[in-house]
Amino acid sequence: MVSTEENLRAEIDSLRQEMTKLQDEMVAFRLAQKILIEVTRGCHCSPGGIIRGALQKTLDVCADVSCNAEKGSLFLLDPASGKIIDAILTRAEVTPEQRAKLIGNVLDKGLAGWVSRNLELGLITDTEQDDRWLTLPDQPYIVRSALGVPIINGKKELLGIITLLHSQTNHFTLRMAESMQAIAEHIGLVLENARLYGQLDTYSKALDNELEKGRQIQIDFLPYDLPKLDDWEIVACFHPAKQVAGDFYDAFTFDNNQIGLVIADVCDKGVGAALFMALFRSLIRIFSGEIQFRGTAAPILQAHKPKNSDWIGESNATNLAHQNALQAVRLTNNYVAEKHWQMSMFATLFFGVLDPKTGILSYINGGHEPLFIVNQDGIIKQLLNSTGPAVGMMPNMQFGIQQVHLERGDILIGYTDGVTEAKSPDGKLFTDNKLKEIVEKSANSASELMERIKDNLFNYMDDAPQFDDITILAVRRNY
């Protein structure tokens, strides 16, 4: 019968083994922490720099943990192909030529190659008595004991191999090997995360480059130079929330010297909205410049005259030209609704045609924010409210045409909802009322009013994130 003393000894031995195991696990955990800190510090580096930093830290710490291993190497492998992605030798004074030869030979015939093929620890207590060790003719240092440890991820794929070296025999023990195996499991997680971060970083930078190209292309769609006219001033502000935007503005001259004015906001944000922004802008320009109606002016004008009023242009020819151009909204609506209905994309859009000689502005407001007409004294004379639905929702929608007269000193202000829905750092909206307060102060130019709006808006936002595109268009008839 087993004595109580023997039972106690067995229990103590078991506790010692458990304590040793826990100590090894603690060492492994602390090592993983050190490596992870190195990866975190390197997040501002290139993907290759992050991986190399993690490898170097891994090898340095492993060499120290394993009873001061004198030299070592760490190979990072591609799990799919098994090829070396990167390799680091530590505390080894070798030339680049020697380094390349070492890496190639040891992974083919040496201990690292054996570990790679068998996916298990390789412990060599005496290199002269173990054929797994490859001694090169021009070996730059003496190695008598070695330890090879596989780094394996959760999918049982080989991520890397650690090889630790010492100039004395029997330097590495079985316990050291088992401790290193526990460490390698944690290292596998860290290196896998570093590798995935590198891939994500590479993809993210490639995507950013593509978006930057898209931003440049989109900027090219906006008018490089706004029309410069005697007695008129046209200015604009475009501030996208992301690299590409769904807002746009336009100002262009027709062959008959009339001026087209557009401000619009495509639903949604990002790349999809930016592509449709380009589509809407192109369609409005093409359709407004190419439409030719058959028949006499009078019947056409009678059929499309503004509600509750007559055409106020100086001639039927001018009124007809405005009416023809504005039919671009109807054609754009039908094209988008019929050809791209599955995308459920539409735009709120204001399109006006201005006669710079008379100040007559004919317009359609397709579901867009009301535009202000404010005089020299800051009095809001009129709001140009919606005359139809958003453009592109359904085919054959009706869009009413309206006309106004811009007198000298009047400023027309159009904006997108990114202005009124901008938020302060504490989450409060800028609001229509705040914009109205700014507009109601007298301004001597469209530029002065534009700068006042921008200053108030961006000061209000401060460092709060911008959630929507901000676009403003201002047109003033000078004295």
UniProtKB/TrEMBL annotation:
<dbReference type="InterPro" id="IPR052016">
    <property type="entry name" value="Bact_Sigma-Reg"/>
</dbReference>
<keyword id="KW-0175">Coiled coil</keyword>
<keyword id="KW-0378">Hydrolase</keyword>
<protein>
    <submittedName>
        <fullName>GAF domain-containing protein</fullName>
    </submittedName>
</protein>
<dbReference type="InterPro" id="IPR029016">
    <property type="entry name" value="GAF-like_dom_sf"/>
</dbReference>
<dbReference type="InterPro" id="IPR003018">
    <property type="entry name" value="GAF"/>
</dbReference>
<dbReference type="Pfam" id="PF13185">
    <property type="entry name" value="GAF_2"/>
</dbReference>
<dbReference type="InterPro" id="IPR001932">
    <property type="entry name" value="PPM-type_phosphatase-like_dom"/>
</dbReference>
<feature type="domain" description="GAF">
    <location>
        <begin position="50"/>
        <end position="201"/>
    </location>
</feature>
<dbReference type="Pfam" id="PF07228">
    <property type="entry name" value="SpoIIE"/>
</dbReference>
<feature type="domain" description="PPM-type phosphatase">
    <location>
        <begin position="229"/>
        <end position="477"/>
    </location>
</feature>
<dbReference type="InterPro" id="IPR036457">
    <property type="entry name" value="PPM-type-like_dom_sf"/>
</dbReference>
<feature type="coiled-coil region">
    <location>
        <begin position="5"/>
        <end position="32"/>
    </location>
</feature>
<dbReference type="GO" id="GO:0016791">
    <property type="term" value="F:phosphatase activity"/>
</dbReference>
